[in-house]
Each structure stands twice: as C-alpha cells, then as structure tokens.
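Notes continue from the previous slide.

Worked example: a multi-chain complex. Inputs as given:
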Amino acid sequence: MGLGAAALSPALLAACGGGSGGSSEQLPIGTPQNPVRLPVTREPIADGLAPESGTLRIYDYADYLNPDTIARFESTYGVEVELSTFATEEEALIKLRSGAVDADLAIGLTDLSIAPLVAADLLQPFNRSYLSNFTNLIAGLQDPYYDQGSQYTVAQFIYANGIGYRTDRNLDTSVFTGNEGWNALWDSRYRGRVGILDFYRDTLSMPMLRRGLTDVNTSDRAVVEQAGADLAEVVQAVQPQLDGISYQEIPAGNRDLGFCWSGEMLAGPGYLPEGVDPSVLGFWYPGNTLTGNDFYCLLAKSTRPVLAHAFVDFFLDVDNALENQLYVGYQPALQAIETEQLIERNGLPESLIDALVTPERYESGQRLVRLSPEVDAIWVDVWSEFIAG
Amino acid sequence: MTGRFRGLAFVTWAYLIWSLVPVAIAIVFSFNDGRSRTVWQGFSLRWWIGDSEQSLLNDPSLHTALANSLLLAVGSIVITVPLGVLLAIGLDRWRSRTSSAVGWMNSLPLVTPEIVTGAALLITFTTLYTSIPLGRPAQLIGHVTFSLSFVVVTVRARLVALGTSYEEAARDLGATRRQAIRLVLLPLLTPAIVAGCVIVFASSIDNFVISSFLSAGSSSETVPVKIYSAVRASSSPALNALATALVVVSFAALILSIVLLTRWQRRRTGSAGFHSAVNDVTQMDL
Amino acid sequence: MSGPSSSPADRRRLWSGLALPGSLWLAVFFLVPAYTIACVAFGRVDPVFRDAVPVWNPLQWQFDDAGEVMSSVISGPLRGVLLRTTAYVIVAVAVCLVAGYPIAYYVARQTGTRRTVLLGLMVIPFWVSLLMRLLSWVNLLEPDGLASRALRIVGIDRQWLNGSHITVVFGLVYGYLPFLILPLYAALDRLDWRLVEAARDLGATTTQAFRWVTLPLSRAGIAAGSVLIALPMFGDYYTTDLLSRSPRTAMMGTQIDFFLNGSSQKQKGATLVLVLAVLLALVMTWYLVSLARTRREQS
C-alpha cells in the first residue's frame, strides 16, 4: 500500500495544477500514509446559537436512517425532517454540484467524495462546540486521514467487505479461516447460488485481497488485469449474480453466499421470512479486507446549520445510535458501543458477530481512496472488460 | 377453415395468458403478508394501508413516485399532442424537400433506442442547456421528445385517410384556410388526437430509461424508476401496490376518455369513432 | 363563391408555419443532443471532477479515447458484446415473428366484438409497467418459483436467472412482442383477402395460398415491424439487468449504462452511444432504401 499511495498524492497534485480552465483547484486527497488537512475557506457558524425551527433537509442513501429515531428527533426539537435520497455517490456529487439538490446535511458519502466536495466549495466546517457526543467516535475516526481534525466530516458507519452466507445450507465452512474464505466464491459446488457486489472498486479489489495484496489503489495495470481475470474465473465457476442485494437474497433463500458489506448482513434478519431464525445468517470477516466508513457533512448552503449540528449530535448519542442500527443494520462508528449491547438490545444473532468491525479491525483494513483520472481509467477499462463477458 | 383457426385461436389465447399472468402475480403479491415480493406469506393489506411507514398509503416516496408519473404523463399530453398535431398537418400538406427532411427527422426517435436518447439528453442538459434543471423539467422534455413522433404518425394516418375534400368544401363555402383547419379539419381529427393522447399517456407512464437518466434523485422518481430500484436497494410488496395503483389510475383515465369521446361522438353524429382512429393507424405505411 | 385565394407562397408559409414548433422542438431536443454526444465522445475529461467536457468545435476534437473504444469494439472485449447483442436481437426478432405472425393473423381475421375484445386484451400489457412484469418473471423463474417447478415436472431442471442466454432472449421477446403484433396486425388487416380467395378458387390449397399470396403481401408489414422492434432492442439493458445480472449476457446497453452512469470515463460511454447510433442508422437506411425500391417496383 505504501509506495502506490504515497506516489499518488504528489503526482495527482501536479497533474491537477495544469488542469482545465475553471476547475484547476488542487485536489487534496488523503491516504492513510499521507493524511491531509483540508483547506478551510469559510468560517464555521458562531458558538452558542439556538437551533432553528422549521424543516431540516437531509440528502442520504435510502433506508440509512431509522424513521423512529428521526421521529424522536423531530419531537425533541419540534421540527420536521425531510429526506431525499441518492443511489450512488457519483449521482450525489452531480446533483449537489449542479444545484439540483438543496439540503442541509449530506449523509452516507465516503472519503471517495470528500475531495471533489471541498473543491466544489459545497461544504462548511462543523463547529465542534455543538457536538458534545463527538468523543463517542472511535479514536481513529476522530482524526481521519481524509479530513484531519474532522473539520468537514463526522464519521457515521463503519463496515468491511466480506462474505455473507447461510449457515443452514451445508456450506463448507472450514474455509472461513484466516484469509482462505475468499476461495468459497470460486467453489463450483455453489454454482448459481452466489451473489457478488457490482461496484467496480470493491469488486476488483476482492481478488487482490485474496492474493494477499495490500495496495488496493494500485496503478499497476497488470495487477488490475489479473484481478479482472480472477473475477472471470469466478463467473465461470459459480455463475454469480452481480448486484447489491445479496443482503436480501441470502435471507430470502435464493442465494447461499454473497460478497457483500458487513453492515448489510447485519440488516439481513429483517429480510427473513416469518418464523425463520436469524441464526441461519452468518458472516465471514476476512483476514485481509477493505474497511471503510461514511460520514455526515454539512452543506455550505444550509439554512439551518445549528439544527443540522443538533441532528448529528443526536445520532452520536449511544442510545440513539443503537436504535438507528436496529433499522439500518450498519454499525455506528462509536467506540462506546459494545458487542454485548448489540446482542442484547438489538437482537444481533451470535452467527453474525463476525460482521462487527472492531477498532482494531478497522485500523488493519485496507482503504479505497479516490484515484486520479488516469489510474481510474485503468480500473474502469478492466471492469468494462469484465462485464463484457 | 375453422379447423385452422382453432389452432391459431389456441395460440392467441395462450399468448394472452402468458402475457397477463405476470400482471396477475404482481397484483397478487401486493397483498402479501411478509416483506418478500416472491415468497407468499399470507394475505394482508399491510402494504396498501396497514404499515405505518412503508405502505402505499403512508410512504411519501411512493406518493411522490405516483404523483410524478401522473404529472409527467399529463404534462406530456399537454405539450406533445398540440405540437404533434400541428406538425402532422404541416408535414402532410407542405410539399417540399425540406418537409421530407423534417419528416425523416421525425421518424428518427421512433427507432432510436431510449438509452441513446436518454444519454444524449442527460449530457446535453448537464453541459449545454444547464438552465433546464434535471428532474421533472428535464424528464418532461425527454418524454415529449420521445413520444412526439408517435402522435405525428397517428395524426398523419388520419389525414391521409381524410384527404383534402372536407377542407376544400369548407373553402368553397367561403372559409379561409385557417378557418377550414380550425373549424373543419381539427374536429375531424378528433379520434386521431384522442388516440395520440392515449399513446402519449401510456408511453409516458411506462417510461423507464429516459425518466431514470434525467432524474434528480428521489424527488423526481417515477413509478418505473422506483420499481427498478428494487433491484439495487430495499424492496417490498409496497412496490407491487404502487404498480397496481398506477394501472388502476391509468385504466380509469383511459375508460374516462373513451366514455367522453363516445358521448362527444353521439352529439356530433356522422363523424367516425375511436375505432376508426385505430383503423387509420393500421392502414398507414410505417 | 370560393374563399379568398392564396398564392403558393402563402400556402407554403401556412403549412411550414404549422410544422415549425414541432420541428423546432425536435431540432433542439433531438438533433442538438445528438451533436452533443459527438462533442463529448471526442471531448476532454475534467481532471478534478472527472466530468466529461464537450468540445464544441470539431476542429478541436480529440480522438484518442474514441479510438480506444473503437479498437475494443472491432477487435477487443467489446466486440464480443456487440456480437452477442446482435445475436440476441436476431434470435429475439425471429422468435417474435414466428410467435407473433399467427396471432396477428388470427386477430386480423376476426370481426366485430371478438376482434375488439382481443385487441383490448392485447393492449392491456402496455398499461402495466414492463419492469413490474419482468420482475414477476424473476419471481416465477426463481429456483422455487412456479415456472421453475412446472418445468421441473416436465423434466427440464436448470437455473434460469444466472447468466442464461435463453432467459434474456425470453425477456426480450416478452417485452417487445406486443410491439410487433400491432404492426403485423395492421398489415394483415389491410390485405385484400379477395386475392387469397381468388387463389383458392384457382385451385391452390390453403398452404399454397398462404405461402404464395398472403405471405408475400404481408412482407412489408413484416419488415416494418421487425425494424420497429429490432432497433430499440439493440439499446436494451434493463432486461438483462433484471433477468440475469451476469457478464455472460451483457448487452451493449449494459456497457453504455456503466460508462455513463457508473464510471469516470463518460466520454467512452458517449462513443459507444455513437457507435450504436451509427450502426442503427445504417440498418434504418438500408431498410428505407429497400422499401423505396420495392415501392418503385410495385408502381
């Protein structure tokens, strides 16, 4: 991971220096090796203001906030919350930049988007004095590499990539140790019962992780092409379905196995048919995998910034975060949340405990960072070749 | 002859059943008791009115989708039909090389895949026509562009069948050309115009590709876009309820328009009915 | 007394005036976007936001990225996709013709209420979301679905939703068959059946009359209908996305959708759109030319 990522930032900044007219601002991309402090062009709001009334507008993924928790926030502050949703970060970026969407808070974006958000001057920094629960966050994310000092962002959920599976379908679970479990995706015994994520960065990095590689942001075309070739083997072996709904299909019984996100599988019990015990759902946490997190960010054009702070602070509270997790499934990035709480309060089945991302696991996982257009073109080309069949 | 037809009758009815069974299934599963859209778990009205957040009655995003679909459909009719009728009349009567070129241009959208039109419009709206925001305005324009050619084809068919004799008779009686068009031709075109409205409505209601490409997020989702999201994100039988509701509303609109047309026909005896509009389209060369 | 006479110039102005708003609309919202696609395909990529930046002046177009895509289409991975798409379309259209012609023929030969009822029933699918109907087929074709189980009883046991070519072609047929039956019905309805009766009076059997009279007379309708469904089918991507979701059945539309909506290389998606458009324009031109030739021969 070291050389590739370290080489990336200077080269990227140099490339951006002579960019197209009108958008040639430097694009500061942080990596775990080279954290970056984002430039601040506007002042945060003043201290000590009262939360505004009215309607708080939130731009978010679908089903990413518990309606009950939102309702309690609404009644606590006597306000309304209006949600609009996006399906992908690319879409969110386009809509925010073009002004098609006007909101106070954007939730669910990741560090892949932070640099263009800042470059387009869409964000305003948080005022920490309104976020009394900020210290509930896990230590590593109180000062993330992509936004040192957590100026523009407040971490929300953490997750990892792994394999969700059915415990009641006689799968060969002996492979689910160390880093070997990836091989289950190549096992033709599971033909026709497998799902695989269809996001090009995540899915192309999976064969790399299986081979023990740690640079998942590589610009080495040979490595990426090898990953593409490995994926072609998967298609040959198990004829998977490429989509993002393994977390529904595995509980529904249509799939036995899926390459998916840990947070999704935590939401899996909600998709089981009536009367089926949640212990049929399992998750394997790989030895070498991607970890990631998403965040809340405050939009520059927000008309209710104090209320927005209150919203973020509300969800940083441990009890509220636990209630949120009950609905969304994803794991809040709070160190104050114990596994026992998730099991007892939220009914997390023992079989899914491995889907939890402990702070140690979070630190040792690989991170995807935003690639320069030239490097991204390599990944896009290989993916296009892969999905061409 | 009856023997041969019996085999064909069987094939035809088999086709109709094959065609409509999925419709029945979709409607049936909207009454499913569980979350699954594929595993039957008992009967319930949960997804129609029961569930306090996700049912059709209570989920605002479903209301938005339904409202968007209907608004776009009605808006499309309001813009497309007048444009298309005028274009058809103009093209039919105007004999020149320019008009053949325009006529050829008009038939292009009919055979262009929607992904081509949708992609072109998306790129154009985000780079050139940036004053037109994505979402409902852009989607409306996309729908109109897509269905304009259908209206032109339908109306031209009727024009060809009518010929120019009615207008000439009117002119012999002292009307100007404009008056002849307004007072004689347009009323005669009514069945074709109604057929055009129906076609625009149906194609707008079911339009997926263009609505999806030009949407601005969840506030401008239409019913097909929302249904497609079932493949990528959470889904529930509420989507089936949504689709069923849309069908019911569409059919109500269709029946209403047929009833109104028939009543209007009865007032003006002697003019042809809706059935003849269908006939005309079928008579015309594509 | 006849109405006020007008000069040919006046008349032309009237008709072209009527045609103006519609033509303007098509020019602004169809032709200009077509040009924009080319400007994006041969344009640049903004390095900061990875947007596709159109280049309006043809003299400044750059062809590197487009060249890469073209070489991929001609001899690279995209060639397979193009061939596969063409194969799907040809097979699907053929199946539609074989299935649709008898149905159109039957309905065209009915009269009165029965015909209206049949036409009405055939129109119903247009009103129910195609996506909903395709999703219902996913339901039916799942391993435990009714269709899978029914086929297993007959001895056919396979997985239908995991990269199956048959399923994708089936989905295409399901979606586009209604759009073929109507024009075929139109052509057959217009046919002069007395010619068929005359043939039979002259001693032809039913089959011979069909083969030598009905079929040739409906050729124009067959061609028109086939073109009407084949061209849009080339750009279809949601059928395979709903019914298969596997690289093995990817169509051109899948690639275009990925490049334009899910990648930082939108200009490559624009190139693919151009490739598709040019291809279809060629097919359309060939169809129109042969149509004009047949008309000239007939007159």
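Summary box: DSSP finds twelve helices and no strands in chain B. The radius of gyration of chain B is 22 Å.
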